[in-house]
Specification:
Elements: E1 2-8, H1 19-41, E2 49-54, E3 66-72, H2 78-84, E4 97-102, E5 113-121, H3 126-142, H4 146-150, H5 168-177, E6 182-184, H6 188-200
Parallel strand pairs: 1-2, 1-3, 3-5, 5-6
Antiparallel strand pairs: 4-5
Helix pairs in contact: 1-3, 1-5
Bound molecules: zinc ion.
Length: 209
């Protein structure tokens, strides 16, 4: 199965230097590692491929694709805004990435559901941001909460670096859930475009809470 990782960055939070290319390279490399593991350990191995790209239009994901929103550090959680109507600052807490899930929490691997994911660009290192994309996709696909996923270590740990290595639990979690149907939220596109319009119009309050 082809799974498309669709990265949304309307406010250009990652658009400098080689950051975007480094994010794509890092995420692809992590999936290639998982596929190599599957080829070594599963007979016959699942025939999965992953594409990773920044989208320039509102994404139209299938239920097996994955959508993630990049946010500038001086912004707020669009997921929290969507779910409870609060523009909660992302500077006042320490999360770098955030994923919420609904539909089948606790139903285990393989069950369907829906998710929303965002990563806050508190670093300009594309490898770190790529690791965060992979980490959030683990939350989204496995439906593992913070306590469970973070205990698995590697790219599942609470803190990930640009050079953090996958462990076999991460690989098994990825291979076992990549084809799982998790409906993706696309409404973040409009939220970010509204902020972009205000910024482009010179509104100094474009990113205020
Ligand atoms: Zn996490």
């Amino acid at each position: 199965m082809q799974v498309n990782v669709l990265l949304v960055d309307v406010l250009d939070a990652t658009k400098f230097g080689s950051c975007r290319a480094d994010i794509v390279t890092r995420v692809k490399a992590l999936y290639e590692d998982c596929f190599a593991y599957a080829n070594r350990t599963i007979k016959p191995p699942p025939n999965h491929t992953v594409s990773v790209s920044f989208v320039s239009q509102k994404p139209t994901p299938s239920d097996t694709d994955y959508v993630l929103y990049f946010l500038p550090a001086m912004f707020w959680s669009i997921i929290t805004y969507k779910e409870i109507g609060t523009k909660q600052s992302n500077l006042l807490n320490d999360h770098w990435g955030y994923t919420t899930k609904s539909g089948s929490a606790g139903a285990g691997l393989g069950a369907a559901g829906s998710s929303k994911s965002e990563v806050i660009c508190r670093s300009i290192d594309g490898s770190i941001l790529g690791s965060l994309v992979f980490h959030e996709m683990l939350h989204a696909k496995t439906f593992k909460d913070n306590r469970t996923l973070h205990a698995s270590g590697g790219l599942g740990a609470a803190t990930v670096e640009g050079t953090t290595q996958l462990n076999n639990t991460n690989r098994q979690d990825t291979i076992g859930t990549l084809a799982k149907k998790v409906t993706q939220w696309t409404g973040g596109w409009e939220i970010l475009h509204n902020a972009k319009r205000a910024r482009d119009a010179g509104d100094p309050a474009w990113n205020l809470f």
